[in-house]
TrEMBL record:
Annotated ranges, domain Aminotransferase class I/classII large: 28-354
Protein name per the record: Histidinol-phosphate aminotransferase
Positions of modified residues (N6-(pyridoxal phosphate)lysine): 220
First-level EC class: transferase
InterPro entries: Aminotransferase_I/II_large, HisP_aminotrans, HistidinolP_aminotransfase, PyrdxlP-dep_Trfase, PyrdxlP-dep_Trfase_major, PyrdxlP-dep_Trfase_small
Gene label: hisC
Its EC number(s): 2.6.1.9
Record keywords, A-Z: Amino-acid biosynthesis, Aminotransferase, Histidine biosynthesis, Pyridoxal phosphate, Transferase
Length: 362
């Protein structure tokens, strides 16, 4: 017996999630550490959010119907197959809670999203981290890591923090190698920014199978503060999630703003075009002998330096100049790397100027 409440075994062994840093209070530093929208939010979403302020005294509709209907309309999905959540993290937690338990395993690539180990270990299950091939998920290695204990495979596509992706054919090959009782979770958080012609968000696999779900978010397209995630899956998965999700897990202003943002396809396209332009520009500016930029399909780039000390010096120089980027050593073990969100033209030019001016030999 103890003299205070005690967490379940293993909880205090979990390393907490480490968010990207912001500037010091009162500073004018520009945050490029959290992969937020470089163009802010859709004006239509802002107007819808303000409209919802007139209804703050009432509970939101519990199933996020108006948001699901908007998503179904834009993406060609039956709204009944969509579940919304308080950010995609909410839905990922629910999936883990439902399909993982003590003695089970979940498989992920080594540098996959750092939330996956947290939500897996919180259920008492073990996380199996599989080495990548040059910072890209290796389908053969993932399949080789599957055991009779495997119940879930987590796949961020494109991946955070590397920006790499698997083609539609490779994701299909991964799924084809899994037992039917293993749930493949395709986390398409950065789908709005992908320009690769051979990419798929995964809806075709969800439609054709009983063991695939696709998870998305509004956080990267201007509504990070509203915390809106959504998921598409087969009926039996949707039913299970509805049984344990919070009864009002998406607030009313978020539902209004999300529905408007989903329908504002012109703004989403503007975001994609701006991101592609400056992602490619920054990559070309930085990639060379002193730095390596991993080709990205997301709204950030991962820059690798020759040593962890060089990465630390680059981070400090950028911080001093007013650009806050993401150190990825603590969370992902890539100690010689920095993740830089795509921002405004001025931000990208400023970052490139600072990094290209560094003299690592001195």
């Amino acid at each position: 017996m103890t003299d205070r409440p005690t967490p379940q075994p293993g909880i205090l062994d979990i390393a907490p999630y480490l968010p990207g840093k912001s500037g010091a209070p009162g500073s004018k530093a520009i945050k490029l550490s959290a992969n937020e929208s470089p163009l802010g939010a859709s004006p239509k979403a802002l107007a819808a959010f303000r409209e919802a302020a007139e209804q703050l005294a009432i509970y939101p509709e519990g199933s996020s119907r108006l948001l699901r209907e908007a998503l179904g309309e834009v993406h060609g999905i039956d709204p009944a197959r969509i579940v919304c959540g308080n950010g995609s993290d909410d839905l990922l937690h629910l999936i883990a809670q439902i399909y993982l338990g003590e003695g089970d395993e979940a498989v992920m690539n080594r540098y996959g999203f750092s939330v996956y180990p947290i939500i897996t270990k919180a259920t008492g299950a073990d996380i199996v981290m599989v080495d990548e091939r040059d910072y890209k998920a290796d389908v053969d290695a993932l399949l080789a890591a599957v055991t009779p204990r495997t119940k879930v495979v987590w796949l961020a596509n494109p991946n955070n923090p590397t920006g790499t992706y698997l083609s539609a054919a490779e994701v299909a090959r991964l799924h084809a190698g899994l037992r039917p009782d293993i749930l493949l979770v395709i986390d398409s958080a950065y789908a709005e920014y992908v320009t690769a012609a051979d990419y798929s968000v995964g809806l075709n696999l969800v439609d054709a199978n009983d063991n695939v779900v696709m998870v998305r978010t509004f956080s990267k397209m201007g509504l990070a503060a509203a915390r809106i995630g959504w998921m598409v899956g087969p009926d039996h998965v949707v039913d299970a999630i509805h049984r344990i999700r919070g009864p009002f897990n998406v607030n009313l202003p978020a539902q209004f703003a999300g529905a408007a943002a989903a329908r504002d396809v012109e703004f989403t396209q503007r975001l994609k075009e701006h991101n592609a332009l400056w992602r490619d520009w920054l990559t070309a500016q930085l990639d060379g002998n002193r730095m390596r930029v991993i080709p990205s399909q997301a709204n950030f780039v991962m820059v690798l330096f020759e040593t962890p000390e060089q990465a630390a010096a680059a981070f400090a120089a950028l911080m001093e100049a007013g650009w806050v980027v993401r150190e990825i050593g603590p969370s992902y073990g890539i100690h010689n790397g920095l993740r830089i969100s795509i921002g405004s033209e001025a931000a990208m030019r400023g970052v490139a100027e600072v990094l290209n001016s560094l003299d690592f030999a001195s």
